[in-house]
Amino acid sequence: MKRTVFVLMLLTFIPYLIKAQDVMGKWHSIDPDTGLKESVIEVYKKEDKLYGKIIEILKEEDKDKTCIECTGKDKNQPIEGLVIMRGLSKDGDEWNGGQILDPKNGKLYKCYVTLEGINKLKLRGYVGISLIGRTEYWYRMQE
């Protein structure tokens, strides 16, 4: 009887454990200068590629900003709603081979993404080789 209860409990929690170990979902980006939450980014898969879209800007004074430094179809588009992470492919425990856009300066960088824990996402944006770049961490939104 105890074994049956244990197995049922385990089966109940497995979907939550699997979801918690996935990069998909909603994440808070952190302002590297202030350490405060900056935005909510939804990370999702489309045709086996990983994408990230800013779905909410948290600072009221920044909500209406546009990507004035961006080029192409992103030029002058509202930052809220902008797809900033594009076309990453799964490679073991890492997603790489795509790009990330910094809407503050309009530049696109190569990037890779990996989980650093259940609720911590490591993003590395770089030019050329990953040694020349910047690392940011996003934190999973608790629902």
TrEMBL record:
Coiled coil: none annotated. InterPro entries: DUF2147 (IPR019223). Gene3D superfamilies: 2.40.128.520. It comes from the Bacteria. Signal peptide: none annotated. Residues 25-140 form the DUF2147 domain. PANTHER family: BLL5882 PROTEIN (PTHR36919:SF3), BLR1215 PROTEIN (PTHR36919). This is DUF2147 domain-containing protein. It comes from Lutimonas vermicola.
